[in-house]
Amino acid sequence: MNDPVIATVNCDNLIKMALAEDITSEDVSTNAVIRGYVRGNVRLMCKQDGVICGLKVFERTFTLLDPATEVRLFAEDGDEVSAGQLLGEVSGDIRVLLSGERTALNFLQRMSGIATYTRRVAELLKGSGTRLLDTRKTTPNMRIFEKYAVRVGGGYNHRYNLSDGILLKDNHIGAAGSIKRAVEMAREYAPFVRKIEVEVENLDMCREALEAGADIIMLDNMTPEEMKRAVALIDGRAQTECSGNVTMENIKSIIDTGVDFVSSGALTHSAPILDLSLKNLRPSEQ
Predict the structure, then answer these.
(1) Coil, helix or strand for 31?
(2) What is the mean pLDDT of the chain?
(3) What is the pLDDT of residues 155-169, one digit of tens each?
(4) How many Å from the N-terminal Cα to the C-terminal Cα in the chain?
(5) Cα angle vertex 241, ends 236, 243, to 5°?
(6) What angle, rounded to 10 degrees, do the helices at 94-125 and 55-65 form?
């Protein structure tokens, strides 16, 4: 993969798993009507306005089926695209074009939908100084693609997985016995370069997290007024993040609270797909 974020893991294995899910032994529909090699081409069309994302994943899906497949792309990840726009052309063995179509589009539509939704939410925060973050509420085996799409859309990635950062949530605190004890244990266990984030639900918990020395305090499911009071209490002694059912519809109410970050699971778990299709499949002229 040419995309630097996508290249951080072996995405080929994930794409192959998706292809294997769709083709367990053969594509019986295609093999029934195409008995041998026939070269053809098909056009990638946009059917809805949005932000395109995942074009290299789309391309790789076909080239993993057959390295001889040729993909010409007329847009780049992050571009605003519109209904009716020609985004690319795929040429090669018609059997490959047919068999890879749905898996390639599934990746592209899903990633583009997330990038589109993220772009719209990020635009609502423009000028506020608050950064938009994603969460770990991702589709199993799709996290690297979905978090990449958030970045393309203008958001930022929270921790990638459980090995990536310390976030002490309500059940961690319950297991440790208190916020103070949980932070003490985390400080003792983790390297000093690790920041410790603590989730709080009210001002008393916020005060306890601050006194315990938390680096980041997550204000979970608080009202905008409660968040304002919490930010005033923290007064720059820790970074602040708000979380809890944040969507495009309610994010404006958070802008004036003064939090440093706002995290939204909706970026990945609730973004609708961007409608795209492969059209006009034709055999190439001999």
Answers:
(1) helix
(2) 94
(3) 999 999 999 999 999
(4) 32
(5) 155
(6) 160
Maximal C-alpha separation, the chain: 76
List residues bridging with 110 in a β-sheet. none
Structural tokens at position 196: 């410790």
Asked if residue 45 lies in contact with residue 87, where contact means CB atoms within 8 angstroms, the answer is yes
Can you tell me the distance from the alpha carbon of 241 to that of 217, in angstroms, rounded to the nearest whole number? 6
Q: How far apart are the C-alpha atoms of 229 and 223, rounded to whole Å?
A: 10
pLDDT tens, residue by residue, 6-51: 554 579 999 999 999 999 999 999 999 999 999 999 999 999 999 9
Question: Measured between alpha carbons, how far is 248 from 37 in angstroms, rounded to an integer?
Answer: 48
Q: Is 180 a catalytic residue?
A: no
- Per-residue model confidence (pLDDT) at position 4: 53
The answer to whether the beta carbons of residues 161 and 136 sit under 8 Å apart is yes
- From the list 149, 153, 124, the residue with the least C-alpha distance to 138 is 149
pLDDT in tens, 225-240: 999 999 999 999 999 9
**Active-site residue (options: 16, 56, 126, 137):** 137
Bridge partners, residue 282, by sequence: 41
* Strand ranges, E, within the chain: 39-46, 50-51, 70-73, 80-81, 86-93, 131-133, 166-168, 196-200, 216-220, 239-243, 261-263, 276-283
Three-class secondary structure assignment of 48-95: CCEECCCHHHHHHHHHHHCCCCEEEECCCCCCEECCCCEEEEEEEEHH
Amino acid at 123: E
- Give just the sign of the alpha carbon dihedral 43, 49, 55, 61: negative
The residue type found at 66 is D
